Structures are given as C-alpha cells and as structure tokens.
User: Fold this.
Amino acid sequence: MASTKRSENLQSEINTGFGSSSANNAGRFYNRNGKVNVIKKGVNILDRYSWYHTMLAMPTMKFLLLIFSIYIFINLIFAAIYYMIGIEHLSGVNAGSTMRSFSEVFFFSTQTFTTVGYGRISPTGFITSAVATFEAFLGLLSFAIATGLFYGRFSRPQAFLKFSHHALISPYKDGIALMFRMSTYKNNSLSEAEVKLTAAMQIEENGKRMNKFYPLGLEISKVNALTLNWTVVHSIDEKSPLYNLNQDDMKNANMEILVFAKAFDEVFSNTVMTRNSYITDEIIWGAKFKIMYYPNHDKTKTILDLDLIDDYEKIDLLKPVNSTQPLSG
Assistant:
C-alpha cells in the first residue's frame, strides 16, 4: 500500500493525545462540531460530567428549554406539597375543581419561588409557612445559579469560526493541493489567526494497524487579521505525507485531516480556539472553491457571503495551472 511505503520516510507525531493502536479506536477522532469523539466510562454519571461545562457548551435553545423545564418541575413539586398539606392552609385561594385548586397552589408556588408575592394568596399555619420559606430560599439560590450560567454563556470567549463542509483536492501552481476554507461568521475581530493541520492515518506495521499522525505543512499558516475568509492550502509535493496517495489509498488508511485553529479576539482580549476535521468522504477530488466575496452595489463596501463558503466548481486535476485564487479568497 502506498501509505505504508511512504510512512518509512516520514516522522509521525506522538503528542496528539490519541492512542497508537488502531484496533482500539473507532470512528473519527473529532466530530464536525470540534468535540473529541470519545465516550468515557468507568465512573458514575455524577463524576463523569462537569455540569458547569455542560451547561455552558449546550446549544442555546436546549439550554433555555432545560432551565424552563427545571423551573416548571420545581414548582409542580411544591404545588403538590401545598396541595397535600391542604389548600385550607392557604388564605385567599379560590377553591373549586381539583384542576382549579391545583392551578391556584401552582401559581402561588411560582410567586413564592420568584419572591414576587402578589399578596392575594398567603400561607397560614406553621407547616405551610415553613414550606413557603424553604421554597423562597431555594428560589433565591436557583436564580443566582441561573444568572451565573447566563453570564458565563454570554461572556465565554468563542472563536465563531465557520468551516467549509468539504475539503478539496485542487490544482495548485504546478501540482495539486489540499484546500479548505474558514471564516468568522459574527461581527467579532480576530487577529493573529493560526492554523495547524495533521493527517491521521492507519498504517500497517509488523502485521498490526497503527495510528500515525503526520504534520501537514501550509503555504500560509498564520495571518495578521481574519477579515474575509481564509483558504488554507497544503501543497501535495514530495515532502507531503499525501504525496502519491490516491482516493483508494486514503480510504484504506482511514485518513482524517485534523484542523486546529486559534486566534486572538480583540474584544475579549483573549485567545480563542476551535477544532474541525475532514474524513475521506468529505474530501472532493478535482474541484476548486469559488470566490465568496464581492463589492456592494455602489462599491463602497465588500460583502462576504457565508452562504457561499462551500461553493466549488469541478475542475480537471490533470490540466496544468500557473496559479489559483488568492489564499484569502
């Protein structure tokens, strides 16, 4: 196999954090959302997860739905407690059917939990007052935690980088190159952007399939400012681990291109980073990206169209070309 032959002259990285035994790995190393494709076992669920990290990394709508569900659930529990104690211990309740009576104590619970206290319903008796006191205390703690989570999600530095869904094998200068592109998708300003590529392959050595990780050199690995999109280019020449590999060779080696990107966010005054990866099914041979920016109607501003980040056109790899689009295009 071509990849096995080439591996003898290439130095594999040993600091990737992944094991070397291919038989003990499954699937890709990184998911498209940048998270490591690893499931941890051997500890109970309370020790396995950092709930703070989980809540900060959770999608916004899922986070809001979870917070609201917890709020409703807690109030349903306290409403059931008030109902079992007896609604006669709540002054001002408009008793009626079971549903009406329960809804009355439920909304009294929400008022107590949030310390709103409209005043129409109030507890009478020691037990009901004690439960209401504990609920008000729990409400204060809960809203303090929720406020901290909202602030943590709002203030957490993020890269806000969008990657093309596909990587391309494109004509480049007198040969070919592996290309993908990335761009910021919010109104943040990133400077000193830097990218590192690693090719993960499964190589047969002494009858065993081993994971090997080869650094991929880039035409430009660092840019001063990421204002438009950045087409990251790895030239496939004699020094490249991908040299003389065809599509079948890459599939047989279960190749995955690992992408590590970091930049300095000027607003947060902090370094942000993100990860991505491309497997062989996400690499298009014989294609070239289309330019995704253009001037506005009066030519006073440049429009960066993020809907075009994955737009490409098919091209003949055998046709020699002298140059390609700019690396920022």
User: Anything to note?
Assistant: The chain has a mean pLDDT of 86. The two ends are 36 Å apart (CA to CA).
